[in-house]
Amino acid sequence: MQHTLSSTTAINHQGENVNHKYTEMMNILVELFEAFNIKLTSEQAHGSMALPFSGRVQYLLSLPSIVNSWRTQYGAEPTAENIRRMNIVLTQMSMRVE
After folding, report:
1. What domain of life does the UniProt record list for this protein's source (predicted)?
2. What is the 3-state secondary structure of the chain?
3. Fewer CB in 10 Å around end: N or C, the chain?
4. Of 19, 32, 4, 89, nearest to 45 (Cα)?
5. What are phi and psi of 80, to 5 degrees?
């Protein structure tokens, strides 16, 4: 069986397909949370990637460790307005992946 790879896909040193758009989107999520002074791991970002684009921030802001970090940083839990603002920034940042 022959596999065709897109220009954004490569084979890593372990012989696995790597989609660079997927990886870049995960990095953007980490960068987004960093911009709000919240530590997001690549594993946490990866966990959100199966969700629709618009649901990723909300999911991540529901994780207990992220909620605790947010509470420490801002003195309250994340709100719907925080999610809306972060989604706006995420949309802008993700344009560089397209």
Report:
1. Bacteria
2. CCCCCCCCEEECCCCCEEEHHHHHHHHHHHHHHHHCCCCCCHHHHHHHCCCCHHHHHHHHCCCHHHHHHHHHHHCCCCCHHHHHHHHHHHHHHHCCCC
3. N
4. 32
5. -60, -35
Contact indicator for 11, 19 with CB cutoff of 8 Å: no
Rounded Cα distance, 61 and 68, in Å? 10
What letter represents residue 65's amino acid? Answer: S
Nearest to 73 by CA among 61, 85, 84, 81: 61
**Total residues found in the chain within this entry:** 98
CA-to-CA distance for 52 and 79, rounded, in angstroms? 20
pTM of the predicted structure, to 2 decimals: 0.78
